[in-house]
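Re: that backbone. Tokens:
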């Protein structure tokens, strides 16, 4: 098998216990090239087989540090070994973080909707939080779209001050020009629903 100069350099550095990232930086070559070369020549990262009590300690340490690098250093194994044994924990942690963000956004929307009166300013609809939306009165003043943001409540509140609260139906009618948002139309529309 013919070995290219870059492959030989990768093999030499890997034998000196260089990590893939360090080899990539040292040789200024893509990380995937390093990984493929190491796999091709059988010098890829090997996962250490650990005794059950060490695995338990590793998982507990990872739960506390929330870092594969710190855990590897404390346990005395490679980061790849930590990744192998904590893969499920990492996914679980990621799910917890995602669910936390979703929950924060829902609570923030509840507060913002309550701040704007809690109901559609045209038809007074108030049954479903997800059906209530913020419509910027002047698109030129719009700094960002309210939905899907995780900024501070005060920053969100400042942006909501530039909006009116509409239900999904009224919002679509406003966007398509069916409802005109001048005060007379809003008052007239409100009186129809009372």
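Recovered sequence:
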């Amino acid at each position: 098998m013919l070995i290219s100069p870059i492959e030989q350099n990768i093999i030499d550095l890997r034998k000196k216990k260089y990590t893939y990232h360090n080899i990539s930086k040292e040789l200024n070559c893509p990380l995937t090239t390093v990984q493929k070369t190491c796999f091709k020549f059988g010098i890829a990262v090997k996962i250490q087989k650990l005794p059950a009590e060490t695995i338990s300690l590793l998982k507990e340490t990872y739960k506390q540090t929330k870092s594969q690098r710190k855990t590897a250093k404390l346990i005395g194994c490679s980061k790849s070994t930590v990744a192998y044994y904590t893969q499920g924990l990492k996914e679980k942690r990621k799910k917890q973080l995602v669910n936390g963000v979703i929950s924060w956004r829902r609570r923030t929307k509840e507060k913002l909707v309550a701040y704007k009166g809690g109901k559609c300013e045209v038809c007074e609809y108030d049954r479903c939080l997800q059906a209530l939306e913020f419509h910027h009165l002047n698109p030129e003043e719009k700094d960002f779209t309210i939905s899907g943001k995780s900024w501070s409540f005060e920053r969100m509140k400042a942006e909501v001050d530039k909006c009116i609260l509409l239900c999904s139906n009224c919002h679509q009618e406003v966007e398509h020009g069916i409802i005109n948002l001048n005060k007379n139309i809003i008052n007239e529309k409100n009186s129809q629903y009372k």
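The radius of gyration is 28 Å. The CA atoms of residues 135 and 171 lie 7 Å apart.
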